[in-house]
């Protein structure tokens, strides 16, 4: 018979020598664990154990496993909270808004997008995930390609009178160069504290202008074979 997480919570909070904690519902406790796991992984990386996380939370490891049966399940929740749920539905609408030139859409989109992703927890978890080889990076890169890069390229093709043609691999790679340049500015600013210029708007607009200026040449070369 499976123990009730609420009873386990009560047992855990009543541990010898521990200060009494505010009694939380099962859902509230789960949300607390996710929030604390985000902080923990952002600072300690994914090599750290769930035992260490439980110790930082002030609970037992068995209680943590009642909510998340494995470390992988907890990491999946962190990914969903940090990367999936921070995506804004209006961003897709903005990128598809043909009442505005593509350049204007990109400047507006990247200004809003970087306001969300240029945060320590987002950046550190992404970088730690890459070092660990966790699946977070690969999953997020698929999301970026599907929701940002390919729509950008399709919209630019439409604006150039080329509807009905899918972007080439060369175009996608070139779009990654733009996107990665903007992202790495955030890494240098937040993680390394080594940005040369404290002007995010300049970086965004310069990256977009370089991308749009060279994209027709990249496309032509790819299609010429």
Please explain how this structure is put together.
The chain has 225 residues and is mainly alpha-helical. The chain contains 11 helices and no strands. α10 runs antiparallel to α11. 25% of the residues are buried. The mean pLDDT is 88.
Straight-line N-to-C gap: 64 Å
Low-confidence stretches: none
User: What's the helical proportion of residues?
Assistant: over 70%
Number of helices: 11
- Fraction of residues in β-strands: under 5%
**Class by helix and strand content?**
mainly alpha
Oligomer: single chain
Number of strands: 0
- Overall spatial form: elongated
Query: Biggest sheet: strands, sense, closure?
Result: none
Question: What is the CA-atom radius of gyration, in angstroms?
Answer: 22 Å
Spell out the helices and strands N to C. Answer: HHHHHHHHHHH
* pLDDT averaged over residues: 88
Which keywords apply here?
single chain, 225 residues, mainly alpha
Mind sketching the topology for me?
Elements: H1 5-13, H2 26-44, H3 50-57, H4 61-67, H5 71-84, H6 89-95, H7 102-117, H8 120-132, H9 136-159, H10 169-190, H11 200-224
Helix pairs in contact: 2-5, 2-8, 7-11, 9-10, 10-11
Outline:
With 225 residues, the chain is mainly alpha-helical.
